Fold this protein.
Amino acid sequence: MIYFNCDYNEGAHEKIMERLAQTNMEQTEGYGCDTYCRQARELILEKCQSKDAAVHFLVGGTQTNATVIAAALRTHQGVLAAQTAHINAHETGAIEAVGHKVLTLMSGNGKLTAEQVEEYYQAHISDDSFEHIVQPKMVYISQPTELGTLYTLAELEALSSVCRKNNLYLFVDGARLGYGLTAADNDVMLPDLARLSDVFYIGGTKVGALFGEAVVIMNPAIQEDFRYVIKQHGGMLAKGRLLGIQFLTLFEDDLYLKISEYANELAERIREVLYRKQIPFLVENRTNQIFPILPDEALAKLGEKYCYTYQQRMDAGHSAVRFCTSWATKKSAVEALCADLREILA
């Protein structure tokens, strides 16, 4: 079976594994206070063109989302997100479990607009019973989104502007950030995220690391006591150097961007075959996630050899599915899938 169902089926990039093996018997301080974590923080801040941010390393995306939101919000406050957002659809109520409601807004392409945020906020403060309703205090977006779409720089600037106008935090989930940064149509880079958001993170789990997310906190209000919150949420890895070594390796010589670009290039090969077969898509994007709408009989044949993710039923005979490429996807696997798509969709 060939797996295209997600972008974290494999272990870690060989350079990370080599670095971990080389440093395995070194003695270092724990809890992220080691030399490797310090070097990785400095390198990330350099890439973000920021000296004032705080950088913390956590193990996974759900843990990171829950920790950041808990650190930023008071008990009566909630977080605005698209109904397809990861914190709403794929985290088993983790945010609600730590006491904060996810306030969902409808979105056809996985993205929120500044107008939606402004409308929701104004409706809240204009309600005579506002103190009886969860207060919106944070806006959560993903770059790329759950549907692989990207916020343009103009869209991100508009969201940042409305958040700052209304004293809302802007939190950017970057679990797949590498695939967004290297997409052909992307115009948002790390310095833009640092300038426009209050907090964002750089995903490693889905982009070459064994595990790990690098949280970059720009807003001093969220920086304060953040390590306490990490510890309280079970996120302070005793052998923290394992995270530092991985991110140091990913950001040396732009490895993070190189392997992300490779994944996007492979996704484009699959898209091109689907385009030529005039296959429609649930949503258009240029990142590593592909959402074709295929006949059920074609999916049954593909399922004999490939793993993909079911997305939703479109009509009596068609379903939308997701194919993912990653930093580790073999070119031979993509070539095989493309050949089978040509044959099955003939």
